[in-house]
Design brief:
The protein is an alpha+beta fold. The protein contains 9 helices and 20 strands. The protein has a 5-stranded antiparallel β-sheet. It has a 4-stranded mixed β-sheet with strand order 1-2-5-3, with helices on one face. Strands 13-19-18-17 form a 4-stranded antiparallel β-sheet, with helices on one face. It binds flavin-adenine dinucleotide (FAD) and NADP nicotinamide-adenine-dinucleotide phosphate.
Length: about 350
């Protein structure tokens, strides 16, 4: 029988470092403990939130109800053949440490996603991605607890509805499923994916391995992004807007240096960081929050800031980008309570 921590301090459990307390916090290490935490919330009709590393969250001062954290990590090899391995990874596993472990084991496929903070359990929620590779490229299936039907269920890749930084867990049924295990297929031979501009410039035509790509990504990210341990942040604060090609062309006519990339058929992905920067926000600071000076897409907490201050700033940026470019910016992190 597990018992929750009451009035638990979540300040160190969210990468913005906002002072926040949960009515009840459960750290669960098994499926049985997870079910106990769910029952505790359901019996008392309490709100329920699952968190991983808190690196894509904006937490208010008080989170009513039950907050659950899965603390079990590690992976096991389910299948192995000449060319690939199939891994099953526990939800509480730190993502970056998994990437480093598989690179060390000589397996390829995750190296472009080095240094993404957070847990394996959260990775499918927004189909994490970076430098031209997304989780879905390596994803096979997952196990989740369905809070509505009260059973464990399996999801294939197609059932997850992965899109650009999106999935059914984020947009169709947020909060319904608790992901407990994720299965990934990795290659034994190095599969090079280094076409992404800044990465190919960094590697400068040299012969590479999964390890050298991993090292390059770590170096690039460390030079551009603030480490949440030094400066609170949740990575990119807004999604890159996806707009019809015609709208992108109209914007480009007025702003020839606009940064945009092809997305799916008929749509272009605009670099939200460019829009925010060119609306004049880069390096802006108000009170204890602001816009990071090296990357306008990252909002930061200089210390002692609050979710409310940050969301006020985010609203002002959204209004200014809408006024200047007619483009709606949507926050990427989840805000609690909503
Ligand atoms: P949390 O922030 O704890 O939770 C995020 C959401 O997922 C919440 O809605 C939560 O309820 C839900 N959730 C968490 N665990 C589970 C679970 N087991 N089952 C069901 N729902 C769950 N993201 C990228 O895609 N690419 C990047 O390159 C990237 N870079 C970043 C860099 C920095 C410096 C930071 C701070 C963030 C970055 N992010 C990036 C965002 C973030 O790291 C990812 O979204 C990550 O997957 C969040 O994991 P987490 O465990 O911290 O999730
Ligand atoms: P960047 O290299 O300055 O590029 C700006 C934007 O342009 C990125 O968002 C990226 O979209 C897009 N882009 C650049 N080159 C591209 C290409 N060759 N093809 C398609 N799209 C391209 O970006 P950055 O902010 O330093 O981030 C680098 C990578 O890390 C990106 O992949 C980004 O998504 C990821 N990242 C994500 C977060 C987060 O919290 N979500 C935080 C930090 C970094 P994409 O985002 O689609 O790649």
């Amino acid at each position: 029988m597990i018992t929750p921590v009451e009035n638990a301090d979540l300040t160190a459990l969210n990468s913005f470092g906002f002072a926040s307390r949960a009515q009840y916090l459960f750290d669960v290490a098994s499926d049985a403990e997870l079910l106990e935490a769910v029952a505790y919330a359901d019996e008392r009709q309490l709100p329920f939130l699952v968190i991983g590393g808190g690196s894509n969250l904006v937490l208010d001062e008080y989170i009513p109800g039950v907050v659950v954290r899965q603390i079990s990590g590690g992976y096991r090899v389910l299948e192995e053949d000449e060319g690939s391995v199939l891994l099953e990874v526990a939800a509480g596993q730190n993502w970056h440490q998994l990437v480093e472990q598989v690179v060390d084991a000589g397996w390829s496929g995750l190296e472009n996603m080095a240094l993404i903070p957070g847990t394996v359990g959260a990775a499918p929620v927004q189909n994490i991605g970076a430098y031209g590779v997304e989780l879905k490229d390596r994803f096979v299936s997952l196990t989740a607890y369905d809070r509505e039907k009260q059973v464990f269920v399996e999801f294939s890749a197609s059932q997850c509805g992965f899109g650009y930084r999106n999935s059914v867990f984020k947009s169709v049924a947020p909060g319904r499923y608790i992901i407990t295990r994720v299965r990934l297929r990795l290659n034994k031979q190095f599969v090079q994916k280094t076409g992404y501009g800044v990465l190919s410039q960094y590697l400068n035509g040299q012969e590479v391995t999964a390890r050298s790509v991993f090292d390059a990504i770590v170096a690039i990210r460390q030079s551009k992004l603030p480490d949440p341990r030094d400066l609170g942040n949740a990575g990119s604060f807004f999604e890159n807007p996806v707009v019809p090609v015609e709208q992108c062309e109209q914007l480009r006519a007025a702003h020839p240096d606009l940064v945009a990339y092809p997305e799916r058929d008929g749509f272009m992905k605009l670099a939200a960081g460019w829009l925010i920067d060119h609306a004049g926000w880069k390096g802006y600071r108000t009170g204890r929050v602001g816009v990071y000076e090296k990357q306008a897409l990252v909002l930061v907490n200089y210390g002692q800031g609050s979710a409310r201050e940050l969301m006020d700033l985010a609203s002002k940026i959204q209004a200014s980008v809408m006024e200047k470019y007619g483009v709606a910016l949507v926050p990427e992190p989840r805000c609690y309570p909503q």
